[in-house]
Amino acid sequence: MICPHCGHSNLDGLDTCEECLQDLRTLDVAVHTGDGIQVHLLEGKVGQIPYDRLVTVGPADALGRAISQIQASSIGQALVLDRGKLVGILTERDLLQKVAGRDQNLDLLLVRDVMTSNPEAVSPMDPIGTVINRMSVGGYRHVPIVDEGKPVGILSAKAVANYILSHRDFEF
């Protein structure tokens, strides 16, 4: 979508212009023809995609303990909850960028010191296109799924791709 204020070319579906931050919500609504991949992206819901089971840790947990939980789950990330509320996500990327190669005692570091705070989340009722847009624009490989304020799962880019490819009633 082209921003009428500054002319910047934005991805369709963005709420604000990436360049000038003007509101784009009222300008364009995606329209589809009722066939192909557009149906899956615009009408399919996030909750239809099989998502990873939930691994949770607390912000005050020792990082060493959190890493053990992530390793035991074979998932690669954990949602950080404080009194049941999503406050962060701890991913392999966080660990590689903020911890790997440093001589630190993992039992003295806390999850809050390494996690990504306030991650973007989606609802099970959001269109699949919404999560794809958030992953693309934000550079995320995992997005938490929150239903009525409660985290229920985490969606990976791989799961989204597999879902779309499993519904091959479209041509590339």
List keywords for this structure.
CBS-domain, 26% helix, globular, alpha+beta, four-stranded mixed beta sheet, 17% strand
Write the layout of secondary structure elements.
Blueprint: H1 37-42, E1 56-57, H2 63-73, E2 77-82, E3 85-91, H3 92-98, E4 116-117, H4 128-138, E5 142-147, E6 150-156, H5 157-166
Parallel strand pairs: 1-2
Antiparallel strand pairs: 2-3, 3-4, 5-6
Question: Biggest sheet, strands in spatial order?
Answer: 1-2-3-4
Helix content: 25-40%
**Rg, Å, rounded:** 18 Å
**Structural class designation:** alpha+beta
| pLDDT averaged residue by residue | 84
Please write the CATH class name. Answer: Alpha Beta
- Regions with pLDDT < 50 over 5+ consecutive residues? none
- What is the number of E strands? 6
Which architecture would the CATH scheme give at its second level? Roll
Task: Note the total helix count.
Answer: 5
Reading the helices and strands in chain order gives: HEHEEHEHEEH
